[in-house]
Design a protein that fits this description.
The chain is mostly helical. It has ten helices and no strands. Helices cover about 75% and strands about 0% of the residues. The longest helix has about 40 residues.
Length: about 325
Amino acid sequence: MESSQPYAYPQDIGFLKRLSVPDWIHAAVLVTAVLLALHRYGSHMDHYEKALLALAAPTFAWLGWHWTQARRLMALLAVLALAAIAMYGGVPEMADRKFFLKYFLSSQSAILWMSALFVLATLFYWLSLALRSETGAVIGSRLCWAAVALGFTGMLVRWYESYLIGADIGHIPVSNLYEVFILFCVITALFYLYYEERYATRQLGAFVLPVITAAVGFLLWYTLARDAAGIQPLVPALQSWWMKIHVPANFIGYGAFALAAMVAMAYLFKSSGWLADRLPSLEVLDDVMYQAITVGFAFFTIATILGALWAAEAWAVTGLGIQKKPGR
């Protein structure tokens, strides 16, 4: 009888020796994509963006080696984003002329689909918990994956759209409340999906997805009330490469902390006897909370340090500007 346990590698085998042919193909594809992007679009990038792109290959290769689903997600994002770019053909007006751009792949359309799918995923997770239906949880999980894919696609396409408007307007889409709430939604969902697969349990979706749905609700209200979906030039205070690393690090921390908070709610339900037979063990819940808090603390600490450096630079520039004014 074959064992159901995964194969345990001997301790003396190095990590790189454990990698399979598909793992190396994944890394090679990423390196090739980075080189092609630098060759074709390098003239439009600043030093930060080139460095970020160069670091993307080893970072996402490592992620794909450790989590197969992330590898599939990256491949899907590449297909969807490149398809949208090809449909635009360098003409912004194509967003209203091409069917798939208008209704699916333009940044605003993709983000609206993301919002709808997160709401549906929340409903299915709760139905699954209430009715003890594994089918409902499976549907909720797939809807959550689709929402993450479209959310990231929307952000990538928005990045491209900002450069279509003007080279001096183009920027990474983490510069305002509208954009960072999208980032918060997809990061929190991605953290949850990782732990969902790692612990082979979908019952926590009913607790984690509501906080994402609440963020989606705010995002939709903010879009309608403030016309926030439009792409605007960066204000001078945000024209700094510190912003481009401070904000993502901050919201990775926020996403991890949000996950930990909602799992803590599940822990309270479990320990008080409510839904006790429908939730994972207290040990699993405690482990998820601990790991999420650890990740959140690490990234939030990094973001705080980066924010301090950014503020110091901004104050220095402001001070120099004041000193150069006539009459001062």
